[in-house]
């Protein structure tokens, strides 16, 4: 069996340390710094020869620095003769650029996949991709995990009465249906149209009944909070009582926290797939951990076990 080693970049070291605590191994030692000319330097400070190496680095601000740092770390590990190198990216960079939906635009999610492979990654682990077809951009194995059991378990324990699952747009209908199945609740769909290339969307009408019920909106991420505000507004117009929101990736730009506070949503439940700065945590934001999930996936990959069995246990 290869030695198991876990390293981290500077994007989310707290998550990496949590994963290592579940695995009962020390975090790998590496030196990472940025020179005055903005070039990134990486040196691995321990032997990784013939080791099974996992590098934890989600996509968070500054996104491009974090991605470049990950690529350089993978290259350093490859040149240090690591046997296998798995890029653990809880939040995949450029996931929204997954198709050519306008003239003369790139498919950046595919470009990132190519960069990771060329750098030397032999496997990728990620959580709740914005578009599942991104898995097909790779010629190496991709383990696409989901935080759904973690979030659904939280709401099961809350036991909210008269709950209805709500998809904020048609593209998230399948996600809402999966939550509805686990929580044994009905669902509804809001029709939302994105405005050009801006981080704005307009909710128009809704399919389903939410009058007099508590609504749980589910999505893969929250960035500006604009879509949430629109969705909460239309739910209130249709007679919903308490409104909850849940997603995996809390990107949370500068204006998002204020919008969440003022939106009237009772609670926002997210995970730590990306770091959630204390300054961005409104009183109604709850952060759940994906550390145990990632540790379980790493353990399964390292030992050759089934990752599917992770989702058969209680969370």
What can be said about this structure in brief?
This protein is 30% helix and 26% strand.
Throw out a few tags for this protein.
single chain; 315 residues; alpha/beta; Rossmann fold; seven-stranded mixed sheet; five-stranded parallel sheet; 30% helix; globular
Provide a descriptive summary of the structure in words.
The protein is built from eight helices and 14 strands. With 315 residues, the protein is of the alpha/beta class. The protein has two domains: 3-147 and 291-312, Rossmann fold (3-Layer(aba) Sandwich), CATH 3.40.50.2020; 148-288, Rossmann fold (3-Layer(aba) Sandwich), CATH 3.40.50. A hairpin with a 5-residue loop joins β2 and β3. The chain is globular.
What integer is the average pLDDT? 93
N-to-C SSE string, H for helix and E for strand: EHEEEHEHEEHEHEEEHEHEEH
Shape: globular
What's the level 1 CATH class of the largest domain? Alpha Beta
Profile the largest sheet.
7 strands, mixed
Low confidence ranges: none
* Count of DSSP strands: 14
Q: Tally the structural domains.
A: 2
Q: Determine the fraction of residues in helical runs and give it as a percent range.
A: 25-40%
Q: End-to-end distance, in Å?
A: 29 Å
Radius of gyration: 20 Å
Major beta sheet, strand line-up: 10-9-8-11-12-13-14
- Approximately how much beta-strand content do the residues carry? 25-35%
- CATH-assigned fold name of the largest domain: Rossmann fold
How many helices? The count is 8
Question: What's the CATH architecture of the largest domain?
Answer: 3-Layer(aba) Sandwich
Question: From the helix content, strand content and strand pairing, which structural class follows?
Answer: alpha/beta
